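Hey L., structure's done. Input below.
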Amino acid sequence: MASPLLALVLSFFVPGLGQFYTGQFLKAVVLFVLAAVFAFLSTLLIGIPFYIIIWLFSMYDAYTAAQD
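Output:
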């Protein structure tokens, strides 16, 4: 069984890494790519709120997926 706390910490550092840890490989790739795109767009300021949303969702989702 996956540790919810470890999944949360992994997604804190890299969005999608917690999903990878819990075996959600496609979701991990999608979240990582979205985070990378929005991080790049943050140079234009428009990506910052979207990156934060993806980052927070990634942590929440990894934590709840590890609990199941």
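The longest helix spans residues 47-67. The CA atoms of residues 20 and 28 lie 5 Å apart.

-- N.
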